[in-house]
Write a structure and sequence with these properties.
single chain; Deoxyribonuclease I, Chain A; six-stranded mixed β-sheet; 13 helices; 21% strand; disordered C terminus; IPPc; Type I inositol polyphosphate 5-phosphatase 4 isoform X1; hydrolase; Endo/exonu/phosph_ase_sf
């Protein structure tokens, strides 16, 4: 009688699996459970648990602030902090700040052909760090404010963790206790991930420290391309940062292209863009050989290109100024050289730019002045320049949404700073896995055959044991 009962239960199990397979619908997921009373009498009280067969991938949203500013060779001063606060739009803080500068040193013979001097870049990093972290008060410290001098640089997450640990275990003053808030004061909410200087072109990338715990941030590399005088001097060119956040790769390119508003000058700029694409590289180290890392700009998932791109207007000066007085930005954009490149699929084929709803950012008459250079009546010693949107921010890749695109009103230089805020999605491969079974009802197609066999055997074993009681 016992053998018959066990055979009957085994038969019921086989029938149950067959019926489950015949009802399979691969278009959705379901748990191992069924409400069919007749088929599931022998399955009462049985609960499935997850087998964690594949890594969990979850899309997360980040806010990236991208800014560009040609500072006309001027050194940062303490009073500039208020201008930075406006430019960085700190009322709505971002997760990542990517800032590109041009002409952080005067473009003179000594600075162009001489050895790189990190002083000005360090000063800018110091001011940016203090501004980003000022809302927390207290003394702000950061482990790195000097720009990276070697293109083979890679961010060392482990040493960063050790440094933070050193901060946390250092002894407080006698009679005092250190709170988490005070620790964030000292280390800073935003961390400098990378910065790179080439003559006057400079990039600085900052990230909220909380993201370093949430995501795996890796493969932070830098690259520079000099394509100015004779095609190889650094008065013009680009500095770039490559990095991976979770499962998404990013490339940030800060550029300063050839100036000039004569006919044909746009061709020089286009050539420099092509050179930057061709010559920017992020070589793999020996330990990276098995990793599928991007080597070029276009190898990344999401790319941002920004700077003083110097594209001008195909329009006479007096007509441009009249449209500016009318705030007729759409009419003015019809004559914009870069917009023409984007529409006709030139060097920036497939790239995007947000709608421009602000006045041209170049060239203003003098420091602390809100008047464009040139025009009538002419002024002695003043350069005649047709106003133009020289300072731009472009992007390339899927999963990027621009939330805003605006200029700030700092009168620090003859350019106005420009900013854009983006919402982007990254793949996070570190998310927690569910403990509840969830896989397609066609069990054998999802779980390896050996696992299914063991699974069936375990169910039958449980039923056999139950039959003796």
């Amino acid at each position: 009688m016992g053998n018959r009962q066990r055979k009957s239960r085994r038969k019921a199990i086989r029938l149950w699996f067959i019926k489950r397979r015949s009802k399979a619908d691969a278009s959705h997921l379901s748990e191992i459970s069924d409400n069919d009373e007749q088929d599931d009498e022998c399955m009462d009280g049985f609960v499935g648990r997850s087998l964690d067969m594949e890594p969990c991938i979850r899309n997360n949203e980040l806010r990236i602030f991208v800014g560009t500013w040609n500072v006309a060779g001027r050194s940062p001063v303490g009073s500039l902090a208020l201008d930075l606060i406006e430019w960085l739009h700190l009322k709505e803080p971002a997760d990542i700040y990517v800032l590109g500068f041009q002409e952080i040193v005067p473009l003179k013979t000594k600075t162009v052909i001489g050895a790189e001097d990190p002083t000005e870049a360090t000063n800018w990093n110091s001011l940016i760090g203090k501004t980003l972290n000022s809302k927390y008060g207290g003394a702000w410290l950061t482990p790195m404010i000097n720009p990276i001098t070697n293109d083979n640089y890679q961010y060392d997450a482990e040493s960063d963790r050790r440094l933070r640990s050193d901060y946390e275990i250092s002894s407080p003053a006698r009679g005092q206790t250190r709170t988490k808030y005070e620790l964030s004061d000292r280390v800073g909410r935003y961390k400098l991930m990378a910065s790179k200087k080439m003559v006057g072109v400079f990039i600085s990338v900052w990230m909220r420290r909380a993201l370093l715990k949430k995501y795996r941030v890796s493969e932070v590399k830098v690259s520079s391309v000099a394509c100015g005088i004779m095609g190889y001097l650094g008065n013009k060119g680009s500095v770039s940062v490559s990095m991976s956040i979770g499962g998404t790769s990013f490339c940030f390119v800060a550029a300063h292209l050839a100036s000039g508003e004569k006919k044909g000058d746009e061709g020089k700029r286009n050539h420099q863009v092509s050179e930057i694409f061709r010559r920017t590289s992020f070589p793999r180290l020996p330990e990276d050989r098995r990793k599928n890392l991007p080597l070029t700009i276009l190898g990344h998932d999401q790319i941002f290109w920004f700077g003083d791109l110097n594209y001008r207007l195909y329009l006479e000066d007096n007509l441009a100024r009249e449209l500016i007085k009318q705030h007729n930005w759409s009419a003015l954009q019809e004559f914009d050289q870069l917009r023409k490149e984007l529409e006709e699929g030139g060097v920036f084929q497939g790239w995007k730019e947000g709608n421009i709803e602000f006045a041209p950012t170049y060239k203003y008459s003098s420091y602390n002045c809100n008047r464009y250079s040139g025009g009538l009546p002419s002024r002695a010693g003043e350069k005649q320049r047709t106003p133009a949107w020289c300072d731009r921010i472009l992007w390339y890749g899927k999963g990027v949404k621009q939330l805003s695109y605006f200029r700030s009103e700092s009168k620090f230089s003859d350019h106005r700073p420009v900013s854009a805020l983006f919402s982007i999605h990254v793949e996070d491969q570190k998310c927690a896995r569910s403990g509840l079974v969830s896989f397609p009802p066609s069990v054998p197609s999802t779980i390896p055959s050996k696992a299914v066999t063991n699974y069936k055997a375990r169910v039958i074993e449980m039923l056999d044991l139950h039959s003796y009681h």
